[in-house]
Hints:
With 119 residues, the chain is mainly beta. The chain has a six-stranded mixed β-sheet with strand order 2-12-9-4-5-6, with no helix packed on it. The mean pLDDT is 97. The protein has no helices and twelve strands. The chain has strands at residues 3-7, 10-12, 18-25, 33-39, 46-51, 57-59, 67-72, 77-82, 91-98, 102-103, 106-107, 113-117. It starts with a strand and ends with a strand. 0% of the residues lie in helices and 51% in strands.
Amino acid sequence: QVQLVESGGGLVQPGGSLRLSCAASGIIFSLYGMDWYRQAPGKQRELVARISSVGNINYVDSAKGRFTISRDNAKNTVYLQMNSLKPEDTAVYYCNTDPPWRINGAEYWGQGTQVTVSS
């Protein structure tokens, strides 16, 4: 049974940093591209960063130069290092496989981790 557990969120001042982690279980982690998404209040979930199974990386424009995605296949974990945080980065952050994992036809999402950027 797949499980994605995000952690590392919190309250941080503008300009600060956070490192998010996502521990995956129930999948052969190394075979999957992994994504970080975020969902701000009243907005649709958006893809923030992607790392393929072979390490190719892509970012949404707003994350370029500030966020770094990485993975540790030995730990079945994907990370998102976020620097120079802005209030508009405030959201619940989720990880998922690429494409999103499905259970009985429905997309599976973990509980996410809240990131709040505020002074």
